[in-house]
Amino acid sequence: MSSGLPYLNKLRKPELVEFAEKTDLEDYATYNKNELVVALDKHLRDNRSIFAGDKKLAEYYKRLAQPARAASPVKREARVEVSPVTEKKSVSRRSTKKKETEEESDEAAKSPSVLRTSARAARTSLDAHAPLPPSPAVVTDAIDRQTTKMREGLESAWTASGVLERSHALRATLSSLKAVETIVLLLEGGSVLKELLPLRYLTTVPEVPAVRLPAVHIKVPDFFVLLTGAFWAPLTLWLLTGLVLPLVFAYFFNLSLQAAGGNGGSHTPARRGRPSASASRASFDPLSFNIAKALLVYLVYADKFTFWDVFSNFAISKVNTAVPGHWAGMLTGTAIGVIGTLYEAILRR
């Protein structure tokens, strides 16, 4: 074992990482602390001539120059002393005692080595079967690795779900004046259809007491009203005032067409190939559309204009009642469209 290894083992991992970066140790980021200590010790010993003059590594090379400590010798067991055999009167008994004493001394001489061998074997078995508890740095590294894996797994799952891409696509779709106008029209048209198509009772699903499910009344739209004028007259009136006539007005009174065509109102022919983006946006002027819709809403639903008795007051009242906010709500929608048109024009400049 290197005499500088205990010094590296006492350092924290950030200090070891700093030594590894300073000495250009390869793949040090993949090591835990114990592996980094061993790899750094070998790297510094192999490149001693290069890094020996570094002040930050002076303590390590000072420890490396010292001889490694030898393992402490095992204390010798106290030898068993054999008391001398007293002389016997008879020669035969003296020889017998002498033989017994020699056997006991042989056993006593063998016993310390046997005891040392058994103690060493016991220590080896304990070292093999009872691992030492890990250091706090090892536990911290393990927690950091598990946290990193968990975070990477959550990030990959979030990316694979596609929620972020769909939210960006929805945001790009809704961030336009056309989307705002479409939402306003859908709100008005849905309210009119809900008012003109009443729901008829069809049946009742009985309650289920076992799961505490109450009875459910099922209702369906009454499609028989499609055969009556009470449905088509209000719907046609809303289509004319809210969509068809404003689009016609926006097509012919198109102020953006002059801006797309050039100065002086002269219409310059487009180049061969695909039309320019400004020309494609100039098909219907959104400002003219909202102004025309506001005039028609006020004229029809506030001033009760019946288009020369083509529509009845019942149709006008039906549409006016169906739209949220009545005719003032429709004027609010046109005001939103006008503000959006002006804001988009400012941004385009």
TrEMBL record:
Spans through the membrane: 223-253, 327-347
GO cellular component terms, A-Z: membrane
Keywords: Membrane, Transmembrane, Transmembrane helix
Domain of life, source organism: Eukaryota
Entries under InterPro entries matching the protein: Put_GTT3
Bias-annotated ranges (Basic and acidic residues): 74-90
Region annotation (Disordered) ranges: 71-117
Protein name: Uncharacterized protein
